[in-house]
């Protein structure tokens, strides 16, 4: 694994997650209470033995850059190990990244001091567990020039992804973006392989391909341009996703929409969640803030309905549930829930205050929001749409730092 240099693509705008991406890049969006989305990819890298990692950032990069600097500055630079964020350098032109391939092309200079034999390209906005060493082993076994991470998907759903057509030896024959008729896996007519956005290349081969692509009028995208041409000219294989999550169903999520984001968080509070955060053999790292323990108070007044309690929920450090009720929810650090407040099926981010007698259901509340006493959210879609972002499913999303006024938002 010391022969591999890793680039994590973290420059997308994440527009479908707006307003959560209004002030931050998608990989920096909080997830699961204490994590950021990018933590899962970076944890995979560490758990796989990768030690030279560049995170390529672009839009609204401050939050992500800060998180990497204070939370992931854990390797020894004297040993040539590092995780670093790299903004657009504009060494080649004044263009921003024009696509995934162009992002790597503009940062090929990072490879010059290291001279790695292999380049691993990852997306920084997916949630999954994977040992990338398994891809490397397949590359050696097949003497491949490139290996593409692939996951089985029902054939009826595969047309929403980049579909990988393979032969019986898993050599890739075709790579089609959102085809009308996806190619089934040999021996499994009910499923197709779709791309996970994970690519392992021989450095000298991909360097040549990227230089050629930069001179042509393409989309400068790995899935649309680089991989299809490499299939014709090089040995390219599909790696069948081996899930380190150790569940009956493989877990890989691109939480690209607000509803998908909420559903993935709600899975974490289930009795038996699909995604396991508690596996000591595959730890998920993040920045650990200096927060006091979570606290639940006013049990002595339970007969009057004033009891601090959280059920089927994740509650992070620094939270105080002060006479309120939290159920089926995810609370990030430093959340306050006051007397008789009721929070259900919600994702509540850092430094949010829930006022007395407030009622909240199926909501995502971003950081630094103060919910006034007696506020009602998630029960009246018409009223909610006048104040907040509401998805088609009725999920209410409140922007970071949004100011709510009790005179408007309270009900008797």
TrEMBL record:
GO terms for biological process: glycogen biosynthetic process. It comes from the Bacteria. Keywords: ATP-binding, Carbohydrate metabolism, Glycogen biosynthesis, Glycogen metabolism, Nucleotide-binding, Nucleotidyltransferase, Transferase. GO terms for molecular function: ATP binding; glucose-1-phosphate adenylyltransferase activity. The keyword ATP-binding applies. Residues 292-398 form the Glucose-1-phosphate adenylyltransferase/Bifunctional protein GlmU-like C-terminal hexapeptide domain. It is an enzyme of class 2 (transferase). Belongs to the bacterial/plant glucose-1-phosphate adenylyltransferase family. This is Glucose-1-phosphate adenylyltransferase. It comes from Nitrospira defluvii. The gene is glgC.
């Amino acid at each position: 694994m010391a022969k591999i240099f890793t680039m994590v693509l973290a420059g997308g705008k994440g527009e479908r997650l707006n307003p959560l991406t209004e002030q931050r890049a998608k990989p920096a969006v909080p997830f699961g209470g204490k994590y950021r989305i990018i933590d899962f990819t970076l944890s995979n890298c560490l758990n796989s033995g990768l030690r030279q990692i560049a995170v390529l950032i672009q839009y609204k990069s401050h939050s992500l850059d800060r998180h990497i600097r204070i939370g992931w500055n854990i390797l020894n630079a004297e040993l040539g190990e590092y995780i670093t964020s790299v903004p657009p350098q504009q060494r080649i032109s004044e263009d921003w990244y024009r696509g995934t391939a162009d992002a790597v092309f503009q940062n090929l200079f990072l490879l010059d001091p290291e001279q790695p034999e292999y380049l691993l390209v990852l997306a920084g906005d997916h949630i999954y567990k994977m040992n990338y060493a398994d891809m490397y082993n397949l590359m050696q076994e097949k003497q491949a020039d490139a290996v593409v991470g692939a996951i089985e998907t029902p054939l009826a759903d595969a047309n929403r992804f980049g579909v990988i057509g393979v032969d019986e030896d898993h050599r890739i024959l075709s790579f089609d973006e959102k085809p009308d008729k996806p190619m089934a896996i040999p021996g499994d007519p009910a499923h197709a392989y779709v791309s996970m956005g994970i690519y392992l290349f021989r450095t000298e081969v991909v360097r040549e391909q990227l230089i050629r692509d930069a001179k042509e009028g393409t989309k400068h995208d790995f899935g649309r341009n680089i991989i299809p041409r490499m299939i014709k000219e090089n040995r390219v294989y599909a790696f069948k996703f081996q899930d380190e999550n150790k569940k009956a169903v493989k877990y890989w999520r691109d939480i690209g929409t607000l509803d998908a984001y909420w559903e993935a968080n709600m899975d974490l509070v289930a009795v038996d969640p699909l995604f396991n955060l508690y596996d000591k053999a595959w730890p998920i790292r993040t920045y650990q803030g200096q927060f006091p323990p979570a606290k639940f108070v006013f049990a002595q007044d339970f007969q009057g309905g004033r009891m601090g309690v959280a059920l089927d929920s994740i509650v992070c450090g620094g939270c105080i549930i002060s006479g309120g009720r939290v159920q089926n929810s995810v609370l990030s650090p430093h959340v306050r829930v006051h007397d008789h407040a009721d929070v259900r099926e919600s994702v509540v981010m850092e430094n949010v205050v829930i006022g007395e007698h407030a009622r909240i259901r199926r909501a995502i509340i971003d950081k630094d929001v103060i919910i006034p006493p007696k506020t009602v959210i998630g029960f009246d879609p018409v009223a909610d749409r006048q104040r907040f972002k509401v998805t088609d499913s009725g999920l209410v999303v409140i922007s970071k730092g949004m100011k709510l006024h009790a005179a408007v938002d309270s009900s008797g």
